[in-house]
Design goal:
The complex is a heterodimer.
Chain A (H helix, E strand, L loop, with lengths): L12 E2 L51 E8 L2 H16 L3 E7 L5 H12 L5 E7 L4 H7 L4 E6 L8 H11 L6 E5 L16 E7 L6 H4 L1 H6 L2 E5 L11 H11 L4 E4 L8 H16 L6 H9 L1
Parallel strand pairs in A: 3-6, 3-7, 4-5, 4-6, 7-8, 8-9
Antiparallel strand pairs in A: 1-5
Helix pairs in contact in A: 1-4
Chain B lengths: L2 H19 L4 E9 L6 H12 L8 E7 L1 E5 L4 E5 L14 E5 L3 E8 L1
Parallel strand pairs in B: 1-2
Antiparallel strand pairs in B: 1-6, 3-4, 3-5
Helix pairs in contact in B: 1-2
Classes of the chains: A alpha/beta, B alpha+beta.
């Protein structure tokens, strides 16, 4: 399902892939339709049975309607793609982190700084989600880390299908950390599992301290909240204690780190979290046999 | 929020079950939507009509069944009903709640022919 908000499936583009679903194929098959070929179901007059009616009453002949119990999750398809991504990540020992925030929280700056500081210790790659432009992927690539841009077009969030498609061109290394920078939006990305290990919500202190209460779904879905731009606190009327209380009110188990991506303050704590989480994700990871034998041969 | 893409998800499920169960037309769809799912009912109804136009569900009715949210209150040691995330326990006002249901987004039943 290319779940694109505001319709038109063909809006999503993945860099380097011509992945526009063009649904306007001209249909030029000319099948001659001879009606002898069709099988007609002839009902015998005594057994016209149209099944159960809407009121669950079995009244043959009265209505052609019937009830179908399906009990299916609306997000079932996205969740199936997300689970496929999750097993791919587990198989390859990849830690996937889904970074979510409003536009302008300093997400890309935080990310470029983190990549610069972490790339000597960890294998890294990035998926960038934006409505338009490849500007952010370009910014990421300047750090030397490989990145792939997904443009969602009219869409307001990344979905698991798009992330799955990004795996082949991006090909993140085994035992690496994959940062997925979601579209700037505190609402929709909360509902769409991408198969990530954790959602990380970034909130800057130039925003309102009550954002966790205003957008509770996102802060509930996140395991970590990063409070960014704390170097600006002296100039602002932002009550950091209140903000943390609000976040914990929505999600009692959320972890909170205060940082400034510009001055570097607090960034070490965030790096420790990434490294520790990466180690945890590595538990139970076993390189595939052929890779082990390849390594031995080399 | 993203009701349009949710409706597209609904339509995909309808089309898949039409193939599996061999029906040609959908007349009514019953959705179960939890109060914590973040779905606007009005927006859902509006998007639905637009999304199903020209499909097997064209002109069908969307019925939304709202499901309440339950949480376990650590203070009361009891199951309580809440109406939103970040809200206190209705009986003791504690915020130590473990939300257990209310984020459902499910197609329950269809009337088809």
């Amino acid at each position: 399902m290319c779940t694109v908000c505001g319709c038109s499936e063909g809006e999503t583009t993945i860099e380097g892939q011509d992945h526009s679903h063009d649904h306007e194929h001209p249909h030029e098959h000319a099948h001659p339709h001879s009606h002898e070929d069709h099988e007609h179901h002839h009902h015998d007059d005594k057994t016209h049975d149209y099944g159960q009616g809407p009121a669950h009453a079995h009244v043959p002949g009265l209505s052609q309607s019937r009830m179908v119990q399906i009990e299916q999750d609306i997000l079932g398809k996205n969740n199936a793609y997300a689970n496929a991504n999750r097993s791919y990540f587990a198989e390859h020992g990849i830690l996937a982190l889904n970074l979510v925030s409003s536009p302008g929280s300093g997400k890309t700056t935080l990310l470029t700084k983190s990549l610069t500081d972490l790339q000597d210790e960890l294998l890294l790659s990035v998926i960038e989600g934006d409505q338009q432009t490849a500007n952010d992927a370009d910014r990421i690539r300047e750090t030397g880390v490989k990145a792939l841009q997904i443009n969602t077009g009219k869409g307001c969030h990344l979905d698991a299908h798009m992330v799955g498609h990004a795996m082949e061109p991006l090909s993140p290394e085994d035992k690496s950390v994959l940062f997925i920078e979601n579209v700037g939006n505190l609402v929709c990305p909360a509902a769409f599992d991408l198969g990530e290990a954790h959602k990380v919500a970034i909130l800057s202190v130039t925003e309102g301290e009550d954002k966790p209460l205003k957008y509770p779904d996102m802060f509930f879905a996140a395991d970590l909240m990063i409070l960014n731009k704390i170097d600006l606190l002296p100039y602002l009327d932002f009550d950091i204690e209140k903000c943390m209380t609000y976040a914990r009110r929505v999600n009692p188990s959320i972890k909170i780190i205060q940082v400034s991506a510009t001055t570097g303050e607090g960034m070490d704590t965030w790096y420790q979290w990434v490294k520790a989480t990466h180690q945890l994700a590595m538990i139970g990871y076993q390189p595939k046999l052929e890779e082990v034998s390849k390594a031995k041969a080399a | 929020m993203h009701e349009m893409s949710l409706c597209e998800g609904v339509l995909t499920v309808l089309e898949d079950s039409a193939k599996q169960q061999g029906f040609k037309k959908v007349k009514t769809v019953w959705l179960e939507i939890g109060v914590l799912s973040g779905v606007e009912h009005e927006a859902m109804l509006f998007s639905y009509d637009v999304v199903v136009k020209g499909s097997i569900a064209d002109g069908s009715k969307l019925e939304i069944i709202e499901l309440p949210a339950q949480a376990w209150c650590m203070q009361c040691m009891n199951e309580v009903e809440i109406t939103g995330r970040g809200e206190p326990c209705p009986s003791c006002e504690s915020y130590q709640l473990q939300v257990s249901s209310g984020d459902e987004l499910r197609i329950k039943e269809l009337e088809v022919e």
